[in-house]
C-alpha cells in the first residue's frame, strides 16, 4: 500500500531533490523573487512558508533548524579567500529570516508567498511561474493593483460631462488631488459590502477593490502612501498620451506644406505603428506587433476584459 509517499519527485533522487529545493528557497529568501517551473514553485513555496514560520518563532531551536536548511549564497571571487567565507553556513540569510521577514509578517497569520503563472518555457513548453514574497519590494500584485486602480478611477471620471468637476478637461487642467480620499472611500466601501451595506458611487470595480484590500491589508502607512503615489502616476501617464497627440495635431496644422500632402501628414501623426497601443486597446502585444491593430467589429467584451477608456476613438480628446 502507498503510505507516507507524498509530494513531487521531479525525476530526481531524494538527495538531489532536497538540495534543489533548498537552493530555490535560499534564492527566494535572498532575492525575494525567483522564476522557475510551476511544480517547483509550488513545492518551494511550501518549504519557504515553514522557514518564515521558524523565523517568527524566534527561538534557538528554530534558528538552528533554519540554519541547517538554508544554503549560503555563493561569495564573490574577491571575497572567496577572506576569513569570513569559512564561517558558519547561511550566515547572511538566517538573520534576514529572523529579523526582516519576521518583522514584516508579524501580523500576517500565513500566506507569505505568491505564485504568478508566467506562460510556458521555450523548448520543452514547461509551465513557468514567478514565485515571490508578499509585501516585499518586488511585489507584483502591489504594482499591478496600483495600475488597475488608476485605470478604473480614470475610466469612471471620464464618463462625466465636460462641465462637471473630474471630467477630461478638468483633470488635464487641475490634475488629481483627491487620490488619498478616493482610496479611503473605496476601502470603506469594501468593508461595508462585507456587512451587506451597499453604498452608491463606487469608482473601482469589485475585483479591483478586492485586490486593493488584499495588497494593502498588512501594509504600513508608508506603503499606502507609496501606493497612492503609484496610482496618481499611472493616471497621469494615461492622460499624457492624448494630450501629446493633440499637441502634434495642432503643430502639424500650423506647418506649411502642399495642400495635397497636408491631409496625409495629419494621418501619419495619428496612425498607430506596429507594436504601438493606446490605453484600453484589446488584443495581445504579439498581434499588435504583427500589425493587427484594429478592433474586430461585433466582438463582445469577455468577463475578464476591461472596457476601453474611450480615449482611443478618436485618438485625441476634443473636450481637452
What does this protein look like?
The structure is a single chain. The chain is mainly alpha-helical and 320 residues long. Helices cover 51% and strands 6% of the residues. It contains eleven helices and three strands, in the order αβαααββααααααα. A three-stranded antiparallel beta sheet has the order 1-3-2. Mean pLDDT is 76; it is low at 80-90, 263-267, 291-297 and 310-320.
Number of beta strands: 3
Stretches where pLDDT falls below 50 for ≥5 residues? 80-90, 263-267, 291-297, 310-320
Percentage of residues in helical conformation? 40-55%
How far apart lie the N and C ends? 73 Å
**What Rg do the Cα atoms give?**
26 Å
Structural class: mainly alpha
Keywords:
51% helix, 320 residues, mainly alpha
Spell out the blueprint of helices and strands.
Blueprint: H1 14-31, E1 33-37, H2 38-57, H3 60-69, H4 94-104, E2 113-120, E3 127-133, H5 140-157, H6 168-174, H7 179-194, H8 206-216, H9 221-254, H10 259-270, H11 285-289
Antiparallel strand pairs: 1-3, 2-3
Summary, kept brief:
The chain is mainly alpha-helical. The protein is built from 11 helices and 3 strands, in the order αβαααββααααααα.
Amino acid at each position: 500500500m502507498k503510505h507516507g509517499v507524498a509530494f513531487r519527485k521531479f525525476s530526481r533522487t531524494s538527495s538531489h531533490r532536497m538540495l534543489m529545493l533548498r537552493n530555490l528557497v535560499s534564492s527566494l529568501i535572498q532575492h525575494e523573487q525567483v522564476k522557475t517551473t510551476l511544480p517547483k514553485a509550488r513545492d518551494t513555496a511550501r518549504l519557504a512558508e515553514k522557514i518564515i514560520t521558524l523565523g517568527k518563532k524566534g527561538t534557538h531551536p528554530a534558528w538552528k533548524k533554519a540554519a541547517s536548511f538554508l544554503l549560503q549564497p555563493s561569495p564573490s571571487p574577491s571575497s572567496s579567500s577572506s576569513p569570513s567565507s569559512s564561517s558558519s553556513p547561511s550566515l547572511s540569510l538566517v538573520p534576514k529570516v529572523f529579523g526582516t521577514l519576521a518583522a514584516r509578517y508579524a501580523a500576517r497569520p500565513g500566506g507569505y508567498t505568491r505564485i504568478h503563472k508566467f506562460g510556458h518555457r521555450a523548448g520543452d513548453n514547461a509551465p513557468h511561474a514567478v514565485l515571490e514574497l508578499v509585501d516585499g519590494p518586488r511585489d507584483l500584485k502591489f504594482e499591478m493593483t496600483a495600475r488597475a486602480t488608476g485605470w478604473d478611477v480614470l475610466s469612471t471620471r471620464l464618463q462625466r460631462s465636460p462641465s462637471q468637476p473630474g471630467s477630461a478637461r478638468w483633470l488635464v487642467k487641475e490634475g488629481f488631488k483627491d487620490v488619498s480620499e478616493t482610496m479611503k472611500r473605496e476601502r470603506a466601501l469594501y468593508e461595508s459590502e462585507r456587512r451587506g451595506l451597499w453604498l452608491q458611487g463606487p469608482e473601482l470595480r469589485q475585483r479591483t477593490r478586492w485586490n486593493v484590500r488584499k495588497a494593502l491589508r498588512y501594509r504600513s502607512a508608508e506603503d499606502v502612501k507609496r501606493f497612492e503615489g503609484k496610482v496618481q502616476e499611472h493616471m497621469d501617464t494615461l492622460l499624457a498620451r492624448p494630450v501629446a497627440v493633440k499637441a502634434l495635431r495642432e503643430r502639424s496644422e500650423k506647418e506649411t506644406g502642399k495642400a495635397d500632402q497636408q491631409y496625409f501628414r495629419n494621418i501619419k501623426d495619428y496612425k498607430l505603428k506596429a507594436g504601438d497601443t493606446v490605453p484600453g486597446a484589446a488584443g495581445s502585444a504579439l498581434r499588435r506587433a504583427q500589425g493587427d491593430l484594429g478592433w474586430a467589429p461585433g466582438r463582445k467584451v469577455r468577463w475578464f476584459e476591461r472596457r476601453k477608456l474611450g480615449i482611443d476613438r478618436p485618438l485625441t480628446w476634443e473636450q481637452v
